[in-house]
Every structure is written in C-alpha cells, then in structure tokens.
Amino acid sequence: MIRIALYVCPQTVLSSLSMADDAFHLANRLAGERLFEVSRLSADGQPVEIGFARLRVEGDLRRADDADLLLIPATGSAIERTLTGNPELLAWLPARPASQQLASLCSSACLLAAAGVLDGRRATTHWSLAGAFRQRFPRVNLQVDELFTEDGNRFCSGGAQAGLDLCLHLIAWHGGDWLAERVAGALVFERGRGRQSRFAPLLPEPLQDDGLITPLLRWLQQHHAQAIDLQCLAQQANCSTRTLLRRFKAATGLTPNDYLQRLRISAAQSALRNPARSLEQVAAQVGYADRATFAKLFKQLCGETPGAFRKRLTHHPASTH
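The line above is the sequence of Helix-turn-helix domain-containing protein; the predicted structure tokens follow.
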C-alpha cells in the first residue's frame, strides 16, 4: 500500500486538494483494492480553517515521516503569505530522506523551493508565477513550459488542471499505466496534453497605462494584418522611433515587433476555429504572406503547429476554455 499524505494549511486551494484526493480514491476503486492510503495532515494536527470551511485532519507533520509521498496542493498566488504562514513545514522539509517522494501542485512549488529541496532540480509552477519564482529561487531549474516535472523523487505541476496531470503520473508510477489510463478515462481527461505554454495568453497585460502607447495598442488591434514597421508605428504615435521603443517596452515588456507577432498569432488562434479556412488563408488574414514563416512563429509561441492546434480544437473543444 502506498501511503500518501496531503498537506493542508490556511492557504490551501480547496479545489486542488479535492482534485488530488478524488484522483487517488478513484484509482483505488478502479483498481479494486486499496492501493493508496490517503490522509490529510496539518502542521500542528489541528483542524484548518479555509474560508468558510473547517477541514479535519488525521495528524501533524510527524504523520508524514514515514509516508511514501507528501503532496502539497496549490496554495494560491500570494506567495509571501504562504511562505510566512508555514514555518513548520519549511523547517521539516529539508530533513526528508531522498527516498521519500515530495510533490507540489501549482503555486506550492514555492514551498518546496523555499525549503531548498528543489535546488539544482527541474521544477515547474503556474506560468504566471514564472518571473517571480525565478527571481526568488535562482537555484531551481524552472521549466515553466511543462505541465509537470519529475526530478528524482521531486515532482511539481503547473497551474490548475495540470495538477491532475501530475496525479495521473503518480498513479501510473505506483499503480501502472493501465490504471492511470482508466482514471483519466473515468474523469474524461486527456493524458499527454503537451506543454503548459499552450495555455498561457500570448499578449501580456500592460505593465502601465501610457497615454502614448495605449492608443497605439488599440490601433494595432485593428491594423495588425497590414505591413507595419517601426517607422510606421512611430508616425502613428507621433514620436521618434527611440521614444517609441523605450515607452513601448516599459508599457508592455515587449518590443513593438514582438508584440505585433504575438498579436497576429493570437488572431490566428481565433481564425483557426473556422475549419473552412485553409492554413494559407489564415496566415494571409493575420498578416503573413508566407505560410512557412507563419507556421514557424505559431509553433514557437504556442508550442504546437497550426494544424495540431486546429486538430485539438476539433477533437477536444472543451480543453480550449
């Protein structure tokens, strides 16, 4: 029997906790035996208040001393609050033997990283936390494009539903690939969904509201399919190219050309939903005369070819929401 300890704290995201709990209990039912023994624990063994819920646990951290796997569900995006709110866990984690599996879902990779147990290892987390994670934990080899990572006995998942990808991987690890496939089928969930980068928005939120750049971004939304160069944008904004480059980068975090390419590919994602339009027509519609250039940029930014993107929409429309 595989003993799994789920760590619960006030920052725990309940949907992440229930998703992991449900996956392992479903695996037991489909396996026809109690393959996984799942327990919940808190730092001090006391019930945990999360919003309006009061969760009972089976013990404190000592209960996980002999667990085969400690899994930390997601803890939200307020990383500093999570780190300061879990000192007992951060002190306990470094003493874990290398043979014990430690896993985090989504943002909780920050807890493993803060304890030092991910130093020099591959890890992932939600794509929106990548910048802050790299700055705070430079010793971790962050692979934010991945839905989940495995490095020795250290496992991490990306955002939200990527936690289920990792749970299925752990079920396959301990119970066999056949069992993971059955669990995925029962949950109507596609295994091997590719890379997390497919789900990140191509266009960043503006870093600041700039009276010069904000109107230009609106203009680009309407004219991105035209032949546009830096001089054209500077004339539209009524400023020098040097001023445009400086202000554009400060407002968006991207160069004008990078932003334009992302805008075009984002428009292509919408256009590809229409099966009546060929790839050549979609490329031309968003501003590319050459299909090969379009396909190369699409794969670079989206992690898959335009054809694969369209096929996924056709076969799994719900996965695009």
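Note on the example: The mean pLDDT is 92. The chain is about 45% helix and 10% strand.
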